[in-house]
Amino acid sequence: MKKILSIFALILMFAAAESAYATLIPYTSQERPELGEMYKVTQEVKKGWNLIPAFNMNYDLSGYDRGSVPKSEYKARGPISFDSEIQKENIQALFYYSANQNKYLNFWPNVNEAWDGIGKDVYALGIDPNNEQDTKIHNYLLTSGMWLYSNKDGILKYEMFAGQMKELMNKRKLLKGWNFVVVTPDMGTKTFEEIVGTCKIEKSYYYDSVDTKQWISFPVDRIKDATGIVWVVKVSNNCQLGTSGSVPVAPLPQLPN
């Protein structure tokens, strides 16, 4: 009986957590098709701290499908959509976790410290941030999670690049220790082995920002079904997600005696 109740409690816990997943819808800008595929993100947030897929508040999306809206107004909103219930003025703080420095860095309104931290993380992963700096650092940021503090409940809608993220997610490098990783829709088409790659996972969590405000232990084999989650994962050494890394295989069977 206790086992049945434990299973039932686990099901309820995951059902509650799923209500807080972000929805990532791929689309291509009609005005800027050269940018490739992007995501329109819809995320329910509650007053207080929320763990969400990262976005750059200062990023200028003024050329993307703005219609008759003045460029200056669109630029002031950054990547946040006009029909979003949560706007820039509702965001009190954004924090990025630096895996290399093992600490949180303020990403809003003081962004310089966080950008320096992201650069150090990228460099520690063996990627030269000075080589195509905007692309390398921006892609790494957008495949990471971020803490957002909102002064009210509501639906947050924003836009983020997808095409370059997909390429990066298939070879996403992690640093030893804790990493905040966005689970994107294309990961749902991969096998468990293709997602985990060379990583030895010690702990796997998700923070339910909407219902329980608690950390939830998350089975790694459910990650492919968790699009929109910020996967908080602890790995035992520097490693690489995805199939582009060399994944160890089992030894060949021995010959019979």
Describe it for me?
With about 260 residues, this protein is of the alpha+beta class. The chain has one domain (about 1-240). Helices cover about 25% and strands about 30% of the residues. The strands form four sheets. Strands 3-6-4-5 form a four-stranded antiparallel beta sheet, with helices on one face. Helix 3 crosses helix 4 (about 135-140). The radius of gyration is 19 Å and the shape is globular.
Whole-number total of structural domains: 1
Task: Trace the largest sheet across and list its strands.
Answer: 3-6-4-5
- Let me know the number of strands: 13
Q: Rg, please?
A: 19 Å
β-strand amount: 25-35%
SSE sequence, one letter per element: HEEEHEEHHEEHEEHEEEE
- Structural class by helix and strand composition: alpha+beta
- Tally the helices: 6
Shape: globular
- The percent of residues in helical segments reads 10-25%
What is the mean pLDDT?
75
Low-confidence stretches: 2-16, 60-68
CA-to-CA gap between the ends?
47 Å
Sheet with most strands: 4 strands, antiparallel
